[in-house]
Amino acid sequence: MKRIIRNIVQQIPNTLTLLNLLCGSLAVLLALRGYLLEGAILVSLGFIFDLFDGMAARLLKAHSPIGKELDSLADLITFGLAPAALLFGIQEQLGEGRPFSLTQPAGTLILRLLPFLLPVFAGLRLAKFNIDERQSHQFIGLPSPANGLMVLALPLVMHSQPNSFLIDWLNNDLFVPLYSVIVSYLMVSPLRLYSMKIKGFSLKQNKYTYLFAAIALSLIIIFGYTGLFLTIPVYILYSGILAIAVKE
Fold it and tell me: Which pTM was predicted?
């Protein structure tokens, strides 16, 4: 009986990862059908499952090679393909708002399809992460969940914050293509970022993670869903400050 219970416990992290994958897959479907808000909510649920699968694996000592591979596959869909589908849908609804068609000029087609660079570079970033032993205390390149977090904020802003400056950005036909190119590069860039992985519950071990969590929460309280988008640029700045100010 103990062995059966242990086997069940060992599968908790993988189950959470699979739920992340399910949320991402459904988000792609809904986003491509025009249900951007519902797609964003599913990506946010996937983000929560992704947060807790790693935490569960560490607390339960349930790390496994299959879990590592599953996590990358789930992240590729939820934080690569689903955000691309959301951005593609945003282009359909904002800006010039023209439905996608293969009869459009080649330049327009390229701009409309640039969001799908995100899963390509997310896949490359995740593959590099799996074989790079330097990324235990820091990330090299922007983590793919950061892309998911920024993009999921956009439909939420569209739905609830019509006066946000992000609406003006989204109405500019160049915003989504530029975002796609810049974030795709950041995911595979040599940019070094502080790892926000929680190591137990000790304040001393996690002081910089908890500090950033407080900053992120403040941004969300002050700016709403716009603040959710801003957490990632602030995270990049925060990592740069830590790299200069903290020598550990």
Answer: 0.89
